[in-house]
Amino acid sequence: MLRLLFKPSLLLALAVTLGASSCAKDENGDRLLFSVDDDKALGEKVAHETDSLYRQKGQLLERTDSKNTRAYQLLDGVVNKVLNSGQLTYRNEFPWDVKIIKDDNVQNAFATPGGHIYVFTGLIKFLDDESQLAGVLGHEIAHADRRHTSKALQQQYGISVLLSLVLGENPNQLAVVAANLGQLKFSREYEKEADDFSVVYLNPTQYSCDGAAGFFIKAQAQAEGGADPEFLSTHPDPGSRVEAIQTKAAELKCAGRTVTNTSFEELKRIL
């Protein structure tokens, strides 16, 4: 009997090709060529490569280093309040972790597919209070939870390249994707949705749910002074961003909450 043997990569590519015309779409009408498991697999590989990249630069604050234990305790406390808000679609499906990159000159944060989050010390030190930090983290969590990151990567690199990364067949391209992930640009539509969901995620928490607005107000003022935070260059203003966040917060009646910032000030100090 004649047997035809196919590489797994060819089978997967063929399945995607055959299913592309009938694949599901999200509420924005975007094709979902990646499954949730694909998001997780891609995110794991990209996160591993990103860790290696910043480890080589001596900028990754390792969780295993006892010197960083307290910093991660404090940051995890904020992240977990957002993650445990009960508002995430993939809270239990994605692994969700956060890592700190030591670079005081970069005011940025980004997330891989599958919920691996990276925050630069420059961003944390730029913020005024814990609600702002929670708001920015909520924004990045939304990019992962709403699967914006994998969709943006699909648009930039194409589905065949991403599939090759999932299958471990293109290490050089994986290094390129990891190196450029922090500069990945999102559409204004995705930015607006991430802003909205940041408010939704913070609503059940102790934080003022318009925390992200405080960050954008300060960042925009700095940009007008000639210093453009990297976060703004990769997260375009979808139009009246601050007003839209504050309107959403007013609608949910969750703005203006005050929290003690003792832990946040400690986090900034030890970084």
What are the low-pLDDT stretches, counting only 5+ consecutive residues below 50?
1-24
Shape: globular
Range of helix content:
55-70%
Strand tally, please? 4
Order of helices and strands: HHEHEEEHHHHHHHHHH
Q: Provide the structure class.
A: mainly alpha
Strands in their spatial order, largest beta sheet: 1-2-4-3
Query: For the CA atoms, what is the radius of gyration?
Result: 19 Å
Plain-language structure description:
- This protein is mostly helical and 271 residues long.
- It contains 13 helices and four strands.
Keywords:
globular, 271 residues, 13 helices, disordered N terminus, 4 strands, mainly alpha
Structure in a nutshell:
This protein is mainly alpha-helical and 271 residues long. Helices cover 56% and strands 6% of the residues. A hairpin with a 4-residue loop joins strand 3 and strand 4.
Annotate the secondary structure layout:
Elements lengths: L7 H12 L16 H21 L3 E2 L7 H15 L13 E5 L7 E3 L4 E5 H6 L3 H16 L2 H10 L1 H8 L4 H10 L7 H15 L8 H14 L5 H5 L6 H12 L9 H9 L1
Parallel strand pairs: 2-4
Antiparallel strand pairs: 1-2, 3-4
